[in-house]
């Protein structure tokens, strides 16, 4: 579903944020992406989402290039940033309909999905309110619903659990597992190592822009915890 081939990003001044990164996310994977602040996680995720250009390499989504076929790629994916920066002058329901219009979701399908996910995240009663009145957590829930409304094959998440209450976090984890059982793929960054260890079937650790560990969770961990592995590679 997602192939990152020799991805390299160099910022002005010569800072190499990501250096020849290679990763493959297959159908059904929940792939965790971890590293210290500044390691290159968000830079990589934004490149996959088509927000950042890059200097070398290729990123393919279901065999299509994010550089040469960006619209086709974005029709198959959804991206949720680490900060839900959305149109505060809209009501929640207008925002969801706006996103549904972009993806060409039919009236019946969007109504069913908005009801389903609105109820799951306990925000249905607030969808008529202005987004400017929402808390951070409510905005995060709204962005999650907007990402799911067109049933993406690939979900890209940057710190998705930040700002969510425990019940909403559990709802999101269950939805992630359900999506991947149906053949979708998820690539997400998190600082919550315990969540990554329990949720992901594969893991990648990035340090100073370079991939240092990746693979099946059980193989990577052995008899250790993810925290132990992360600390070992971080201090080496």
UniProtKB/TrEMBL annotation:
- GO molecular function annotations of the record: ATP binding; ATP hydrolysis activity
Q: Does the keyword Nucleotide-binding apply?
A: yes
Q: A Pfam family in this protein?
A: ABC_tran
**UniProt xrefs under SMART domains:** AAA (SM00382)
Keywords noted in UniProt: ATP-binding, Nucleotide-binding, Transport
Q: Where is the ABC transporter domain?
A: 2-233
Name this polypeptide is given = ABC-2 type transport system ATP-binding protein
Organism source for this protein? Catenibacillus scindens
